[in-house]
Design a protein that fits this description.
32% of the residues lie in helices and 18% in strands. The chain is α+β, with helices and mostly antiparallel strands. It has a single domain (44-195, 209-214), classed as Glutaredoxin (3-Layer(aba) Sandwich). The chain is globular and about 45 Å long.
């Protein structure tokens, strides 16, 4: 199957601002005659059991936020930064997938293999912002590459087509909430039902991306 990189269409006047917003996708467009396989219901239990990621934030928190991300996705990097002020209120499980290009697999595997994945992710994102391409992957990461492939298959099974993907139980309502696309900190807090931190200078608003709210069985 051949994939091509594409981005959510945004009017020309908003292209510059959108580089830190919304999400990235790598799914081929579906023609009128194509058969689309029905997505499986999103299951937090399945993600917790089957997905392989690394945890950042309050390790003992009852609030868990799962994030499917691609190491090559700038919107995922924006969400990584936006989530940092909320780490005291929830634990974030970052689940690497390979959606955009072959480098995604190697870098996602390298993050899983790192002794300190959170520090490695910070270094990776700093490298990406500096246009240096991100972290280098070691040679002994075959097991971690298999985890990335499994994570990607799970994301596809749930019908998600772009990254980042946020999956959580809303802290106030208990509903299962999912979203494809990044959010600035204040909007992310509201989406998750967490307390919004004080607005920081330089924080920008985000254009809405696809959001789905489901009632947890």
């Amino acid at each position: 199957m051949m994939f091509k990189r594409s981005f959510i269409f945004i009017p020309a006047a908003l292209i510059a601002a959108s580089l830190l917003l919304a999400g990235c996708n790598d799914s081929p467009s579906t023609g009128q005659g194509d058969t689309v396989k029905a997505a499986a219901p999103v299951s937090i239990a399945a993600i917790a059991t089957e997905a392989k990621g690394f945890t950042v934030g309050a390790p003992m928190s009852a609030r868990t936020v799962y994030v499917f991300f691609d190491a090559q996705c700038p919107h995922c990097g924006a969400l990584w930064e936006a989530a940092k002020p909320l780490k005291a209120q929830a634990k974030f499980v970052w689940i690497p997938v390979s959606l955009l290009n072959p480098v995604s697999t190697a870098q996602g595997a390298a993050l899983l293999a790192a002794a300190d994945p959170a520090t490695a992710m910070d270094e990776h994102e700093a490298s990406m912002r500096a246009r240096r391409g991100g972290i280098s992957a070691g040679s002994d990461i075959d097991a971690q590459k298999a985890f990335v492939a499994n994570n990607t298959a799970m994301m596809n099974r749930f019908g998600f087509t772009s990254v980042p993907v946020i999956v959580a139980k809303q802290a106030q309502t208990g509903d299962l909430v999912t979203r494809e696309g990044s959010l600035p900190t204040a909007e992310l807090a509201a989406f998750l039902g967490l307390q919004a931190p004080a607005v920081q200078l330089g924080e920008t608003a985000n254009s809405p991306a696809k959001q789905v709210t489901q009632t947890q069985p």
